[in-house]
Every structure is written in C-alpha cells, then in structure tokens.
Design brief:
Elements: H1 7-12, E1 25-26, E2 30-31, H2 50-74, H3 78-113
Antiparallel strand pairs: 1-2
Helix pairs in contact: 2-3
C-alpha cells in the first residue's frame, strides 16, 4: 500500500505500520522506540492497558467456561486443573496481548496520519 503496510501484516506479523518491514517489537511485548527499517518514531503510539484488559476478559471467560465444562464432564482431580489451565492460559495471553498491541499501534498510526 502506498500509505503504509497492510494492516494484516502489521498486526499478525508484528511489523511496522508504515513500511511493513521492520519489527514492531523488541522482545516479546515491548514496542520498539523506532522502526529499524524506515525510522518511524513509535514512542508516541501507546497501546496502554487495552491488550491486557482484552486478554483478561476474553481468555479469562473462555478459560473459566472450559474449566467448568472439563470439571463437570470428566471430574478430574484438582491437580489436573492446577497444571492444565496455567499451561494453556499463559501462552494464549502472551499471543493475545502481542496481537492486540500490534493492532492498537497500527490503528493509531493509521488514524493519526490519515492513511487509508
């Protein structure tokens, strides 16, 4: 796209919203200060607490529903719940927060710069 990278590319691959080439993240969840490819200043694009709240609401609700279903259907011992749910929730939470952060940063950039 002339006015920036594909929104899907920026969100799913964690790329710069302007060029689509540089990595958006430094590490797992830390947004870079600038794009390593095009130099876009990313410091002003703050995702805030939105990704964490999305993870808590969506993943939390799904997990509680699944835990109740597993408990009533299979009646496993308590230790199974203690091992199973954290092992599922932690990776899903990190992925959800990474995608949500990338989406918020990309949408902020598009909105602020009038990209279509």
């Amino acid at each position: 796209m002339a006015d920036g990278a594909s929104l899907v590319t920026a969100i799913l691959l964690g790329r710069c919203p302007r060029c689509g080439k540089g990595a958006l993240f430094r590490g797992v969840l830390d947004v870079r200060d600038t794009c390593e490819s095009c130099g876009l200043d990313l410091r002003s694009h703050d995702a805030g607490d939105g990704p964490a709240v999305a993870g808590i609401f969506v993943i939390g609700a799904v997990t509680v529903g699944l835990a109740l279903w597993v408990d009533t259907r299979f009646e496993p011992p308590l230790w199974v719940h203690a091992v199973l749910w954290p092992a599922m929730v932690l990776p899903f939470s990190v992925v959800a927060m990474r995608v949500a952060k990338a989406a918020l940063v990309a949408l902020q950039w598009r909105h602020r710069h009038g990209a279509t």
